[in-house]
Known about the structure:
About 30% of the residues lie in helices and about 30% in strands. It is of the alpha/beta class and about 180 residues long. The protein has two domains: about 1-50; about 55-170, CATH 2.40.50.140. A hairpin with a 6-residue loop joins strand 3 and strand 4 (about 115-120). The termini are far apart.
Amino acid sequence: MFIYNIKINGSKTFKYIFSFIVILIIIVMLVVTYKIFNGAISNKERTSCMPQSDVSKIATKNYTNVLKAVHENIDTYVGKKISFVGYVYRVLDLKENQFVLARDMLISSNRQYVIVGFLCEYEKAQDFKDNTWVELTGEITKGDYHGDMPIIKVTEIKEVDKPNEEYVYPPDESYIPTSEVL
């Protein structure tokens, strides 16, 4: 039978274990730092090659929710770019370069509706007749029309066919607007 007697020097063992742990922590920190910075650089390179779309497309299902949110908090949305479909609608007191890009909002089950929409400004607004369906892209600005009003400065506009979903519905009370996503 063999008996081994191992004598452990406590201070040397502690120094070795402590040194090993410190070196391990430093290595882990270096690897993490490298991955963070390398990931940020490669992500920056990846997104710069892809087209940047900072235009929010408004769909029929959230049209009135967005309209309500923008009207209630104009300052939050100033500078945001949006794209949506509607028809050209004018009232008597609009300027020559203004029109409302409108939709019909159903308010009852027997097809009663009200006209809702964004006030738009476009230098060639007269090129589009009333009730012409168009798709436009523009930037939200703050203007004045019987008080503070969001006005869409049109950057692109084109005539389109009437959509299948011609009507929109009243705003959903559960909708929570954010300035990031329209």
